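Case study.
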Amino acid sequence: MNVVYSRDHLIHNPQWEIFQGERIPHVERPERIESIIASLKGSKHPILSPGQFSTRYIYSVHTKNYVDYIKRLSGSLQEGQSLYPSYYILDTYTPILSGTYKAAKNAVNCALTGAQLIRKEQQIAYALCRPPGHHSEKDRLGGYCYFNNAAIATEYLSQFGTVAILDIDFHHGNGTQHIFYNRSDVLYVSIHADPSVRYPYISGFSSENGTGEGLGFNKNYPLPLGTRNDGYRKTLQRTLTDIKKFSPSFLVVSAGFDTYINDPIGGFNITMPFYKIIGRDIASLRLPTLIVQEGGYEITDLGEIASNFIEGFT
Ligand code: SP5
Ligand code: ZN
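After joint prediction, the assembly is written out as follows.
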């Protein structure tokens, strides 16, 4: 499996998030992706640098005003400065820094490079995107996300066939749901923590099924805190049945590893060896698949989790 990675994510280095009115250390650290790449370096998987893509691809999902706002704000800051914007925001966890625009654009390039690979070679690719993307809506940032990498890759792939998105991050991908909510050519399926007790709170309920043409093409599977391997797997099997029924040309996996038992902000009890099984189960669909990195904050174990997932997949 090709892995797409660039060091350009390192310049986005948020120090603080504002949680319940308090400034607390930011968990979305550059070391996350470095932990994964360190673990994959000795493996048989080739590591590729992303290509450069036009901003046009970002505009295919996000409004121009929103993208330009992030670019302008980011460009106005000195190194080390960070700013919590007043507009286009979902929460107070997602600051803009001088390196944010460049890093976020690089994450999009990683996702698009992977998408191009799976389209041309019908293969599997793993895009090591950072910052993550699935909380970002058409014109709102939030949940550590600025540009929706998985959605931009999906939009690109949808020119060539139907796309299913399987979102296995611990949190509901409100941004991705929002972007494709009225589409019948893109199926969004998500397994996540019950939003009545965990971020993003406002969406991710099983009653959210899509609208208009998109009715029936959005499926949410919220699970209780404390969910273990066996309970998780039952739900995973259901999502795979949904995807088989849809029979897409491509699969995009929003892969967050904050479902891990020791994750500092998660709340499920998924154990290390189980990530191999999750990877194997998803791979059984035998679809050209783009894996897009989302969350996962247990830095020490993150590389091993990703390696297990990838091993299961191949
Ligand atoms: C991509 C992704 O996984 N985003 C997650 C955003 C969740 N933000 C929730 C913030 C909760 C604040 N952290 C509290 C830590 C207390 N120890
Ligand atoms: Zn998450």
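Observations recorded in class. The longest strand covers residues 186-193. The chain has a mean pLDDT of 97. We will return to this complex in the next lecture.
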